[in-house]
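User: Show me sequence and structure for the first protein, then do the same for the second.

Assistant: Starting with the first protein.
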Amino acid sequence: MEHSVTRHTVGGSVEPGGTGLPALGGAAGVQAPKARARGRRPSPTARRQRRAAFLFLAPACVMVAVYVIWPILSTIRLSFFNWDGMTEPTFAGLANYVELFNAQTFYTALKNNLIWLLLFLLAPPMGLAVALYLNQAVAGIRIVKSLFFAPFVLSGVVVGLIFSWFYDPTFGLLAMILGHGVPVLGDPRYATFGIVFAALWPQTAYCMILYLTGLTSLNAEQIEAARMEGARGWSMLWHVILPQLRPTTFMAIVVTIIGALRSFDLISVMTGGGPFESSTVLAYYMYDQAIKYYRIGYSAAIAVVLFGIMLVYIVYHLRRMLRAEQ
């Protein structure tokens, strides 16, 4: 007795030689579940989680928009106007920028900002050295840490007054050490360097705090393995500790660069941009034009240039760090 063997095709027709079951092969049978998965709506739980995330982020986004994005856009817009802060602003186009790039004081301030930037980059390695010294479990180290931490909690005005007395050529400590008075803040050749030296004191303390925090999160197993391999001193620091401190170093450098470019308080207290505008920087030049001469639009143009310099430098370092991490 013979049995007829049938085979179903994809369309549902029966052909000889099959098993009696409809075949699911072919592109349509494979892609149908995927199409249904793509068209499926998120579950109620996923929608609630997404809504909760937006609600948690909303206050921070609103604050960034109001206190960061809007002032930046307003400053850029204001830089194209002439405005004294009281009368109606008048459109000036690129006149503020043309005048800025033709002003000798702008290039003096830019040169001083570059000096600040180069010398201020001494703060991260100095802070690292102090942090390595303080990262010890010895008696009395907490008191020493407090002494090194003290400059960070002092305001810029206090630091400026302390170093103004230190540099005073008649009764200052520097005059006593050298045996004669040196008008550091009264000489155009030394004024900027004297202010930067004063600013390095609290900035080094800040970098020290960052590195002390980073040293507490080091991988002890890597350090122990390096010791077993014979790593000591400089080789341990360079090949084991510093690679783990890369995020801390990046943060210290970025904060130091921003501090160098927005330096204002010490200059205002110690020299007022003098003598003969020799110690002025872009931030103080911006303040001087807005407050003393009521040139709000011109001051906004200086702020835009300063913001552009900071943005380029920070984006450059961010890209370098991301490439290194990848």
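Switching to the second protein now.
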Amino acid sequence: MVRELYPEEPTAAANLQASRKTNRGFRHDFFGGLLCPCSMDWKDPKVKADLVATPQMASTAAWPLFFYPKGEYDPEDLCKGILRGELILWAYKAIFLGPSAWYPSKGKAEPSSSCNASVHNMYNVTRSSIAYVAAQVRFALSSGESNIRSGGAFCQTTFYWHIMKFLNDPDFEQDVKELLEWWDR
């Protein structure tokens, strides 16, 4: 999947093992860059070393670069492009439309009648489904071995609720409306 989405990145899938996650997260050059908060510069060797040594520096309140397409964001407007990253889109399709919809190179796939979206009568993308998928992608990129609610260096539940707080914040109502329209297209 990573090779498929990032063919221009030779290190994207380097040293990955399907059965172990110890070499993921900030220990992996490409995954670390995707997990790096927007407020930090992954290309700075000191930032990289600090995040490897102290992963908690990437708090649940920090927007990681994978939230944005190709990790590119506007520092003047963090809402621009947020939660539109290709990994979130890919994972959303895989979870809610089914395995046949996830391969980017295979073209557009139609969901089967038994996909999760159909089973749960989902006719539109929801705030909570976006937050759920973003949290799952965060976990998949991380070196965390178990996806537990709390404990360890990162709390998935707090991360999910931080995303939900943003998505339900009246100050960002127009941005979220545009985001949901984008997802529904």
